[in-house]
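Weekly modeling sync, notes
Attendees: AB, CL, MP (scribe)

Item 1: holo prediction request
CL wants a bound-state model with magnesium ion before deciding which constructs to order. AB pointed out that an apo prediction alone won't tell us much about the pocket. Agreed to run with the ligand included and paste results into these notes for async review.

Input as submitted:
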Amino acid sequence: MAKLNMVGALNLALHQEMARDEDVIVLGEDVGVDGGVFRVTDGLYQKFGPQRVMDSPLAESAIVGTSIGMAFYGLKPVSEIQFSGSSFQSFPQIENHAGRYRMRSQGRYHCQIVVRMPCGGGVRALEHHSESEEAYYAHHPALKVVIPSTPRNARALLVSAIRDPDPVIFLEPKALYHAVREEVPDEEETVPLGRARIAREGRDLTLIAYGAMMRPVLEAAEVLRDEDGAEAEVVDLLTLSPLDRETLAASVRKTGRAVVVHEAPRSFGAGAEIAASLVEQAFLYLEAPIRRVTAYDVPFVGFAREKANLPGVDRILGAARETLRF
Amino acid sequence: MAKLNMVGALNLALHQEMARDEDVIVLGEDVGVDGGVFRVTDGLYQKFGPQRVMDSPLAESAIVGTSIGMAFYGLKPVSEIQFSGSSFQSFPQIENHAGRYRMRSQGRYHCQIVVRMPCGGGVRALEHHSESEEAYYAHHPALKVVIPSTPRNARALLVSAIRDPDPVIFLEPKALYHAVREEVPDEEETVPLGRARIAREGRDLTLIAYGAMMRPVLEAAEVLRDEDGAEAEVVDLLTLSPLDRETLAASVRKTGRAVVVHEAPRSFGAGAEIAASLVEQAFLYLEAPIRRVTAYDVPFVGFAREKANLPGVDRILGAARETLRF
Amino acid sequence: MPRTRLDLPYHVDYLSILGPDGTLDTDLEPKIDEADLGRLYRAMLLARRFDERMLNLQRQGRIGTFAPIKGQEAAQLGSVYAITPADWMVPSFRETASMLWRGWPMELILLFYAGYLEGMRVPDGVRDLPITIPVASQLPHAVGLAYAARYKGDDAVVLTYFGDGATSEGDFHEAMNFAGVLGAPVIFLCQNNQWAISVPRKKQTQSRTLAQKALAYGFPGTQVDGNDILAVYAASREAVERARDGGGPAMIECVTYRLGVHTTADDPRRYRSEEEVKEWERKDPLTRFRDYLQKKDLLDAEQERRLEEEIAQEIADAVARFEARQDPDPLVMFDHVYAERPPELEAERQELAERLRGTGASPAEGEAPAPTPMRGQRRTSRWPN
Amino acid sequence: MPRTRLDLPYHVDYLSILGPDGTLDTDLEPKIDEADLGRLYRAMLLARRFDERMLNLQRQGRIGTFAPIKGQEAAQLGSVYAITPADWMVPSFRETASMLWRGWPMELILLFYAGYLEGMRVPDGVRDLPITIPVASQLPHAVGLAYAARYKGDDAVVLTYFGDGATSEGDFHEAMNFAGVLGAPVIFLCQNNQWAISVPRKKQTQSRTLAQKALAYGFPGTQVDGNDILAVYAASREAVERARDGGGPAMIECVTYRLGVHTTADDPRRYRSEEEVKEWERKDPLTRFRDYLQKKDLLDAEQERRLEEEIAQEIADAVARFEARQDPDPLVMFDHVYAERPPELEAERQELAERLRGTGASPAEGEAPAPTPMRGQRRTSRWPN
Ligand SMILES: Cc1ncc(C[n+]2csc(CCOP(=O)(O)OP(=O)(O)O)c2C)c(N)n1
Ligand SMILES: Cc1ncc(C[n+]2csc(CCOP(=O)(O)OP(=O)(O)O)c2C)c(N)n1
Ligand SMILES: [Mg+2]
Ligand SMILES: [Mg+2]
């Protein structure tokens, strides 16, 4: 048991899974000798050698495309796209193939691959280094889209993703890479994909978020208790797709009110699906419109203005209070 | 004034815009000598020559990427992606550049480009030839996503798209290419982008759709009148993004009930945004949950089973009746 | 060394063994035993006849759009003959001849083009991938397979097909480069059939040959007469042996011609001349190989007639099996989405199942069954009345 | 013609004029007038000093991540000097020297790296594109610009930059191929600085040179000593003239070295040796050019000292202007999304404006102001109470 940050926790998952199963291999830009630009793959090259930890040429489509081919042979490639902002270069491989091969081959082949990619803002980064692309992946059927929120669940989710027989897009909120340390057990831990977790119980309002937004959301929940005497239930999705509609609906049937928070621009974002699903499954329980607290519908703002664009405690509180008072 | 199908109407728009403005050029796979695999660019090569109508190599990223470069020089390229199923090959150029360049260059450059692509099912096509990708494009800020529903509005929308200073993803429902003929005036017609149209007035229920789904939706509306005595209002979005929230909300404030219909898989699809937006803007008027009638969350089914997957009159009626009776 | 010409390690050769006029380069003639020569001819003829039958079925509306192979039989069979069943074959969408050779039942192929995904269920034991439609996107899969084979200590090689147009796609480039860097045992077999739909080879790229593109990735590229099954085989065998021995990837450009339509949705008269087609019909790989066998006394008119009969029967039987196998039950669409169906998808399946059963007054369309609402359970003062 | 070696139209030359040891090939030495030699040296020195200053500002937290250029000044200035202001320059993200030469004020560049998009507002009259971060994705833009220039009857050429790593991307391939087919006047200037972050050139591709990749597209590729400003200029001028005269695209590979970090977020000690860096420091393009000028009596210690002083002052002034120009008003984020703001975006802007004004008790966050609900206006029997 060690106190690890998210980078360390993910690294632990990779080390252990690679030791456990020699079909697990890692590839991507700078994942080998350099240990990944965020050091998530640190030490793997030294431990498992260049056959299993491959510094690939700079070509995202081929990184995912060759991973797919490897999977047909029984390997379990964990590839890294250096930033989710360059993940669209591999989008055709993901959309046209990873998310279709089981269906296309009627079960003869499937893509047991994990495509890891750091996502999200909050790190004073250049353009294409702080975007949130989850909704694009979530819309495609047959993919799984996972996004951890703490070191411990990051480790367990990555282990589960690697063992999952279906393609997993594994989004790593880079703002959380070094944000906190948490006890992470040495022994293996997994978390079933497709299940949200109740990060905080409450009865007055449901706050729904994932990834880096969990921190301001949990902080807002504390403020609501202290200043408003309101108990917010907080749902941490962990898996965005397939969406755990049951947990969401159950919470909102209890609280009657919901606010969804994400970093991506609002329109046609993940928050829309969550809201639409709640309307379908908990309409008669809704006592206020479902609000979305998100980035604005702008393509990129530069890090000097990122704070104004991304949801923070204040905006979450504002929306929560409006919803409570509605 | 001639009775044209949608192919003819789009072709008219291209002929007239190219004649009017020599900065308008056309490029793509097979758009020249062959006139496009659907003949939308028929005759342009013969009329305007190879400098303005370019048969490009088989490379979607470069088709859009060079269009972007041309736009910086003042040209107005109308490119064709042969099927929207190959449009993800150009997604990085669209997402990383077309939808960001005005912002990135702070107004110095912008991308006055139209990327045309046939979309949707209903034509007994192979995989990747019948998908509906609109939600991916709609989620990216700074793009416009347009989808016509009749020959006449197709022509007017394409003219407006070509003249629009921002990048337009122009989705052409291939099931409608030859579906009907309509009088299309010789004289220029435009339609403001960003505005939905009320295709049918009604007070009991709002049916919301676009593109090829307009036909079963309008048919369902007739059945509802005849068999149920219910008057459905039908909204045809025409522009998916930016979404005409005002028209949608106004209709649902009047009817209190809404059903959204689209061909794309449901989860994280365009219907989610429409539902979420209605909840935000018309919550107190809603008398029933907003239902979505869509394809199932499966990647592809093969045309032998496509009918069971895509919304038809029956399914729309079912959802409408449930909503009316709620 | 102010201005020096660099010496590049590879060059581009052109290979032709059995000329269009029947002349044979006996030095280069590959040794193929008589039985195999017979099998190859039969496979060519079967592919030709099956192609014709499919065209016919398509015109009758019994199958949908497909890509005929007429004219490309030598390029496909000459190359696929060079690999073993333990090797892998990664097709694009125009390799019916290679697929038949590898053991795909004709009825599966028909089923696929009739809109049933069941048709792409690769037969057990056949180490092929299904058809890939997005041009060039299968090439990285071939590289991944090849790498994995080596990783697993397996000496299999991977033969992958693509067209002249495919060489313009980014995926072609990325896959070729990966293969070079990884030293992956892949044979990149380009069927340069002169056209990418309506775009002629000359407009596809300025490079003089397609084979020379391999030089950009540090491995050999060879151009062969793609209508000469002996040359295709010789070049392929060389590449396969090299790859199997750890020599890494190779590219082969087969110069051939699509004698028919691009797909059944295409009208080639719009973009190419009858004369051009005629010119290439004279180089038909099937007649060329037939003449070769006749000269060798391995085929006579009677044998040819019997072969045609056999093949006609085989195809007729396959068509019958195909007709019998069409089961449009739509519920299978939920079967191979994920390994395990998530709740939402299960609900969608049930919704469709109920719709099919025609039970229930219009079930909630395309929606998970809503939980019974507990009306009045919660109320808020904001709801008037 | 059974097996024949094909004659390819282009070959790959290597060009070096001013050797690392100071030897000069006077036959090939380009004629550059003295004033321009002085301008070029000044530009090299400014670029070097500005780079150092930026590193320093970054370490102080006054700007964010950026990509230093130390070691690549000759590759950038030798090439950019070969185009005119009427030509176009399309950078990647590591061309600060070229940008300064083209007229970008230093404060703009600083502003950009401090997280303000205003910094990429290309100065009026400067025919450059802003920095592009997705590797190789700027290359098709260069081709489009070049095509459009010809279409408009303008004889401008386009110079575009990219790294060794960029040659692996699909966009490199597609852009090169388009340029070849279109005969577009583009100079593809590859700065092969030996590393793509931690990946060495050798692992990036198996091809012996990067220049030879041009052969795959049917146009010439030349490899030059990229730390030799004379060779870079000579090769660039040749390519520019050829392109301007309708000869089409060319690729130049500048063999150079990144002496510093990949970006300020990188630690090169993890992947390369000190010795390698030392080795390349001996080939520093700045000292090599300085020696050349000194030998020509165009530069002495005193001039050098004055130049350093001037440059230091220039940079200090720019930093001061940069500090003064930082205006974090977030409302500008809504200004260049579309030509005209759609209603939803306008509502979002107003929402933020109100939030900034601190007025209103917690406005609807990130949501268009909801229309005043008309409570009770419509009711349905399904709502109990
Ligand atoms: C990525 C992609 N772009 C476009 C298409 C449409 N398309 C299908 S086949 C084809 C031409 C392919 O030409 P080539 O590679 O020469 O192969 P051939 O058809 O001649 O066998 C095109 C443009 C596609 N399927 N995928
Ligand atoms: C498409 C894409 N993939 C990955 C990255 C991350 N990245 C930025 S620079 C770089 C290396 C670039 O190497 P090279 O082309 O040699 O240029 P250099 O940095 O050496 O100038 C990488 C991998 C990116 N920006 N874009
Ligand atoms: Mg072809
Ligand atoms: Mg480099």
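Recorded for review: The two ends of chain B are 46 Å apart (CA to CA).
Action items: CL to compare against the apo run; MP to circulate these notes.
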